[in-house]
Amino acid sequence: MGDIFLELKDIHKSFGGVQALRGVDLTIRSGEIHCLAGENGSGKSTLIKVISGAHHPTKGEIFIEGSRIPRLNPIDAIAHGIQVIYQDFAVFPNLTVAENIALNRAVTTGAKWMNWENARKLALDAMEQIGAKMDPDLLVENLSVANRQMVAICRTIINEAKLLILDEPTASLTANEVDKLNAILRRLKNKGIAVMIVNHKVDEIFEIAERLTILRNGEKISTGLVGEYDRKRFVRDLTGRELLSSGYVPLPSDEEIFRVEHLGRKGAFEDVSFTLRKGDVLGITGLLDSGRGQIGDALFGIAPADSGKIYLHGEEISIRSTEDAVKQKIAYVPEDRLTQGLFLDRSIQDNTIAASIKKYFRSGRLDESAMYQETAEWIDRIGCVAPSPEPAVRTLSGGNAQKIVIAKWLNMNPALIILNGPTNGVDVGAKFDIHKILHNLAAQGIGVILISDDLSELIQNCNSILIMKDRRMSSLIQAAEVNETRLAGMLSE
Ligand SMILES: Nc1ncnc2c1ncn2[C@@H]1O[C@H](COP(=O)(O)OP(=O)(O)OP(=O)(O)O)[C@@H](O)[C@H]1O
Ligand SMILES: [Mg+2]
């Protein structure tokens, strides 16, 4: 590790009544890989925005290479070599790889026109430096997520980054792609560039980071070499609690809640049968194209089944549309919550009551105080970090937004709830809370179906697991009889 590149002292930031950062100190050295960890809403993105000049701290000092910068703005930050890659990468899909890489430089150097031949050379050179191989003339819209990220990284290289910050860079990458990204980050580190990454996943952090800073509730809880942490301390610092993940054991019951027989949809999946009894949490898993997600879509009527039978509490029901599903009190937490599950610009309250608005009409008028009251109760019950039911969902962190999708559906008293990847991108604390919610629902007699590719999540929370392979049901096993390695083997064998 080299000299101190960036130093933050006693940084505070508030948004109206929300204290997002409370007295954070942080140092970043050249040539180190530093991980910033914290639960959803702990202030990570806010801290990054302070470093990149996008937010001005309410109080505190920023030093770059030893000099105090009184009012850091985004242009200064870039001029000092601070580059941030946000989750959407901010690439232009309709430009080529080379254009995307070189464009930014043209903008920051104030060039009036671009020399495309030169742009291509710059791009190839940047790719060479990080060891990425892409056709510079390909349109970015045709690239995989991982390659778009490479383009974004190349762009920071040609802007002579000294500190590269990546906000959750691995959230949508496969294990293989994570390895490639790590190799690139190590190269950058060896060139003396400081790298700061935001990540929630313990294993990935331990694999790549040298130092670690943990935020909780806007405060810096600890900072140190990764070697000073084990999994237990990490989770304790992150959450402030000892999370004992005990597996879910349902009370035995014969009461049938939900059953499907030989369910299928042409081209999506075929011949799926299972029964959910009171207290059951059924897991559905499989590789990416196995058809696991399509079962959820069918049961919620998004892409309805065209063969087989569905029974709720012993009675055959028909689900041809999402209206049918909602009428039967089936709830669905979709995989892509940002586009399918939430109205981001509306308040927490509007989102929470969205699926059950009817119950708030009292003699023709909406009962505002009941809506407010019940939303406040949900916020409390699901452990959502929010000051009141009023803020727009857009201002919530990812994990907290996810809890609101779940609250929205629970508020309509579902008979069955289907969750597709409910803890993707959610931190350990929120994940623990969501799992606890699922256990409680199942215990109350609500059918719970958990579609997931997180094998430890499935084993800990389900009593049985249905494995999909090549769009067919390959087996239905008892969670207690497998471990992760065995389950992984069953998915791919
Ligand atoms: N522009 C804003 N206006 C109001 N509140 C905000 C704003 N940006 C962030 N907050 C609040 O500040 C707190 C910290 O949010 P931040 O986005 O920094 O968390 P995070 O650690 O990045 O979470 P995640 O892991 O979910 O991305 C949260 O309570 C959030 O609701
Ligand atoms: Mg964030």
Can you walk me through this structure?
The chain is of the alpha/beta class and about 500 residues long. It has two domains: about 5-240, Rossmann fold, CATH 3.40.50.300; about 255-490, P-loop containing nucleotide triphosphate hydrolases (Rossmann fold, 3-Layer(aba) Sandwich), CATH 3.40.50.300. About 35% of the residues lie in helices and about 25% in strands. It has a six-stranded mixed beta sheet, sandwiched between helices. Strands 16-19-20-13-21-22 form a six-stranded mixed beta sheet, sandwiched between helices. Helix 3 crosses helix 4, helix 3 packs parallel to helix 5 (about 145-160) and helix 4 crosses helix 5 (about 145-160). The longest helix is centred in the middle third of the chain and has 16 residues, at about 175-190. The model has no long low-confidence stretch (mean pLDDT about 90). Bound molecules: adenosine-5'-triphosphate and magnesium ion (MG).
Tell me the span between the first and last alpha carbons: 44 Å
- Annotation field: number of helices: 17
Query: pLDDT average, as an integer?
Result: 89
Task: Write down the domain tally.
Answer: 2
Percentage of residues in helical conformation: 25-40%
> Outline, from the CA principal axes?
globular
Major sheet: 6 strands, mixed
- Report the uncertain regions: none
Q: What oligomeric assembly is this protein in?
A: single chain
Q: Strand sequence of the main sheet, in spatial order?
A: 6-7-8-3-9-10
Report the CATH superfamily of the largest domain. P-loop containing nucleotide triphosphate hydrolases
Query: How would you classify the helix and strand content by structural class?
Result: alpha/beta
List all distinct small molecules, including ions and cofactors, that are bound in this structure.
adenosine-5'-triphosphate, magnesium ion
Q: Tell me what the CATH architecture of the largest domain is.
A: 3-Layer(aba) Sandwich
Please name the CATH topology of the largest domain: Rossmann fold
Radius of gyration: 24 Å
Proportion of β residues? 25-35%
